[in-house]
Write a structure and sequence with these properties.
Helix content is 35%, strand content 22%. With 102 residues, the chain is of the alpha+beta class. The strands form two sheets. A two-stranded antiparallel sheet has the order 1-2. A two-stranded antiparallel ribbon has the order 3-4.
Length: 102
């Protein structure tokens, strides 16, 4: 009977021993933007024009459909070791008014 599959820390890349504490995560980033302005909310024709202009910009842009998809939805899951957990939590818990990691 085989044991548990070996795990690798998604943050540092080290192998996680089968008997070591680890943390599972799922991270989903979903892009959102109000691309159609509210100035034309009472004028359906203007909204249609804005949408047509947006579609043209997307079609003529340098990004591939896959790049656009990744900008809208990005998902990863895995495990992090106990040592990296604090780094991940600190990175994702940075208060909005303080400078982040970038």
């Amino acid at each position: 009977m085989p044991g548990p599959r070996p795990k690798t820390c998604a943050a540092c890349g080290r192998d996680i021993a089968p008997d070591a504490l680890y943390y599972r995560f799922t991270l989903i980033l979903e892009g959102e933007q109000d691309v159609i302005g509210t100035s034309s909310e009472h004028d359906p024709e203007a909204t249609g024009d804005e949408l047509a202009a947006l579609m043209k910009r997307l079609e003529e842009g340098p990004e591939s459909p896959q790049e656009w998809e990744e900008q809208v939805h990005w998902e990863r899951s895995g495990a992090v070791c106990a040592a990296c957990r604090a780094v991940v939590v600190r990175t994702l818990s940075t208060p909005p008014d303080s400078p982040g990691p970038n």
